[in-house]
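ugh finaly. both done.
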Amino acid sequence: MHIKVAGTYIGKFGELWEQSLSDLLKEGLREVVKDAQLPEEAIEAIFVANKAAGSFNEQRHLGALASEQFAYQPPAMRIEGACASGGLAVAAAAQALMSGLYQTVLVVGVEKMTDVSSAVASAILATAASREKEYGSTFPALYSVLANYHMHHFGTTRRQLSEVVVQNHAHALNNPQAQFHKALTVEQVEASPLVADPLRLLDCSPISDGVAAVILTTRECSRQTTLLGFGQGQDTLALMDRADLGSLQATTRAAKQALARAGVTRQQIQAAEVHDCFSIAEILAAEDLGFFAKGEAAGNLTTDRSPVIFNPSGGLKACGHPVGATGVKQIAFLSREIESGRFDLALAHNVGGSGATAVVSILGKTT
């Protein structure tokens, strides 16, 4: 069974003061149907990816809000898995198609995060960590633990973290939907304020608003992009319960499943949108996905050294990170790159929390 990407939409990511959560959701639904050139009634079900609208916007029940935008009110549900909500929603939609229940479904990821203070936003995001065992921690603090472990055990340097940031900002210059269009130098990254040693402000993805959507179908479709395979991996919620802080095992498990289902090898992958919520996260992802041996990714992720182009969209760091939309954006962006002929085979990697959930999807060009 072929699952084709029949339509895509990526809205502008950033501080979208003039748009509400409802505005963004309506925009994504309207524009992705328009892109697919389908009649509205072709959409048989809607999957809404969102982490925390109930906290950010005092609005839950997003499935109903999405469904009412269609006169015939198709079944709709909200999917939540912290920052991996988008990847999970795509996986849930794909499973619904594979079951034969539906033939055409819509996945929309949305988050409106900037209507609260930074302190409130940080507290809301922290609910994706263990409230019992990590209460009071922020995600910069948790990822600083992972960064320090990697630096101590594998010799990763401060400069190598900065190089990840510099490259992602360079890629974002070519992405009109990206939140930031500013080139950075290593020196600028390292001069930015310290947040959680060794992570500095410019190592961290921003708080963002945004929407992204895709339409998946098993019907005949003129688009060339196929969702070849996907996988989901889990690990403990709290870092203290992990066997190894040098690896996100959820990523490794998800990648193994996705590659097996797609019937491809990682050596065939040309591009990867990976979950770089922090600079160290991209290094971990490159290793846990199997593109580099453990300890060898740092310093080798630049396009001139790596066989894979990492985060051509600018990643979470420069494109922005409206958490519910991110995983859907990765799929939509890579689909467009495949349709344009830039890549034939690409991978999307979406992580929830500090690695408790991971989703990996493989996209390819239909031959």
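ok and the 2nd:
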Amino acid sequence: MVATDAEQAAMHRALALAETVRGNTSPNPAVGAVVIDAAGHLAGEGATSAPGGPHAEIVALDEAGDAAEGGTAVVTLEPCAHTGRTGPCTDALIAARVGRVVYGVDDPNPEAAGGADKLRAAGIEVVSGIEAHAAASGALRPWLHAMRTGRPYVTWKFAASLDGRVAAADYTSQWITSAASRADAHRLRSAVDAIVVGSGTVLTDDPHLTVRDADKLADRQPLRVVLDRRHRVSDDARVLDGAAETVVLDTAVPQFALKALYDRGVRHVLVEGGPTLAGAFVEARCVDEVVAYLAPTLLGAGPAALGDAGIGTLADALMLEIESVSRLGEDIKVVGRPRWAQWTDEAGV
């Protein structure tokens, strides 16, 4: 079965809705949903709320009201069939008497999967795999990765000169990149669950690690995480103020840190530490995405963006699949994914 033109349009809207809640839903997935009535007209729409709030389908069904009967629910992820903090979305769809459900990606979570079968058993027509690639590579990507691997999705972000230096020879680093790049980096922070640095970065730069919007603290702040095996971070470090929650982990091992964060409900981590921490994550093969902000500046000396990553020869170099290259003022933003992160499933992602 294929989707109608109205359902395709509804899926594109659902994908956009999911993007609006990226970073705000963990440990739940960022899902978008649209309900169209029996005549093919928009009746309701919604996206997943913060944990404890309604899922996307419930928001869309509530907005649609009686118009959902005999209509179609279009969802980016297979509707859940289990009871967590809220009831199963499948039960709500059945109670609303929708005639058809169209979704993008199968739910890999064994606790929640099986929604499609439950809907079919209730006499509802189900169509899966619609815009599956777009759904799995969009707002759902970090959550899907976490469900499949048991660890958060990791984005490594750095800002550097064109010759790859994150600071000058005297270790001055503010500001290598432009205001446009820094604003974009704050948007990136706003879309993750946690920001991770090492104790060296805290001692050297005393970062705040918060999300700012027009120089004001954003309402939602990701978890701040410091890896401090040697207990070097002092109590007056800015990262320990009350602007956001902070966790100090007594480890330097990425895998242990990621497991601890996964257990806290973290599904997307942003690594912002210096070259040593970045090298450790790369060597451990715990980087799933690289975001580089490159300034049109040459420094010639100073620390490189990436420290020792266990790469001894060109044959061992980490190869990236470049997803996008864009301009931010005078800077260049490059987004790439290590080839080890190119997992493939039935959706073709």
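summary for the 2nd one i guess: The chain has ten helices and 15 strands.
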